[in-house]
Design a protein that fits this description.
alpha+beta; Jelly Rolls; six-stranded antiparallel β-sheet; three-stranded antiparallel β-sheet; 25% helix
């Protein structure tokens, strides 16, 4: 009888040990972030002014999804922590990556801005293109044919 009691106790402990991770996994799934949906009318309005649509965490990283509009060239940017992914929605531009930042200045923690890029690789961006700029890479819109609309996904 004692032996049967020990076996039953062992089975209960084993079942509890197996159920605990499953319960934790179910709780984790229940607290997962919700799906976010942005209808085209909202996205179109966001492109008119530019700005962040959403940001959040995924795994060990953080992300930000932004709409951007350019009507002319801008400053050089270097992000020490963020990788940028651009999807070109409308227009075209000459975009330079790499090279050396001219007159670079720290504008925020882990961010540098500058006047232009010396050297670097030019890319002609147009509707439907995607370009991925790894963290630490200087990048600059040297010339823009407005209106130039692009989706920005920042990943840290």
């Amino acid at each position: 009888m004692n032996k049967l009691k020990n076996v039953l106790m062992g089975l209960c402990v084993t079942a509890f040990g197996l159920a605990l991770p499953a319960a934790a996994s179910a709780a984790k799934q229940a607290s997962s972030p919700k799906v976010e949906y942005y209808p085209h009318t909202q996205v179109t309005k966001a492109f008119a002014k530019g700005g962040t649509l959403t940001q959040g965490k995924s795994g060990g990283g953080v992300y930000q999804v932004m709409t951007a509009r350019r009507d002319g060239p801008g400053e050089v940017e270097v992000h020490a922590l963020d990788t940028d992914v651009f999807y070109i929605v409308k227009g075209s531009a000459t975009f330079v990556t790499g090279g050396k930042v001219v007159d670079g200045k720290k504008t925020a923690p882990n961010e540098v801005r500058g006047k232009s890029i010396q050297g670097g690789t030019p890319h002609h961006l147009s509707q439907g293109d995607i370009i991925v700029i790894p963290r630490g890479t200087p990048h600059w819109y040297e010339a823009v044919e407005p209106p130039f609309l692009y989706l920005v996904i920042k990943v840290r």
